[in-house]
């Protein structure tokens, strides 16, 4: 039971970072970014590349996160912004970006699995359960990042602007809030969160070019269950999904865990399409 609690908490922290970034860009710009999982992959590959160039792990991780955030802003400004009026066009563009990134990773690194170095390469015993230090670090950092993001949104001027645009974009523009600048900032934050999740999960998960697909499925399932545009809903749904998958893995088999997110999405769409916190829930 203790092992389920710990592993479930780690999975939930990773999922929460992915889902909060995904729901953040939806809540502000009203777009579904299918390239979100690619930011996760780029973060992991960036850390791998920079450490292979003999850059220490912490600077390599920070550099990777910064570059992915900048890339996210460029994608928003160059590709998404001109087509933001059409959700279908944005879906197609972001899917194309994800596929291009996947092929670029294949051509650059090949199809072999890569290993991202761990910040903490030790095992910690908690109540008789051995847990990798990298997993505990992912849990702690993930929880801290979500808390800092919440404080940022609730207690800063830029956070107030993000809230205003998420609630009423037209009224926010009339009040002089630069919506395009806020959209770009949120896209950068979203990409940085996904990249951080990739770096933290890299030491104990598979790093390969197709790794972007599963995170986007998880993120989509979480925001559907929690409520599109709701950060509290995404956090709650991430906890639910993380523990549900862990319980299924221990009770049945790890090969069944991927079905959990799909079933959760289908059930929520049938029972309550607006999600737990409802469609209009805001941050």
- On the 0-100 scale, what is the average pLDDT? 85
Quaternary arrangement of the chains shown? Answer: single chain
What Rg, in angstroms, do the CA atoms define? Answer: 18 Å
Straight-line N-to-C gap: 32 Å
Structural class: mainly alpha
Shape: globular
Count up the helices.
Answer: 11
Task: Explain this structure.
With 283 residues, the chain is mostly helical. Helix content is 72%, strand content 3%. The chain is built from eleven helices and two strands; from the N terminus they run ααααββααααααα. Strands 1-2 form a two-stranded antiparallel sheet. Strand 1 and strand 2 form a beta hairpin. Helix 1 packs antiparallel against helix 8. It is globular. It starts with a helix and ends in a 12-residue tail after the last helix. The mean pLDDT is 85.
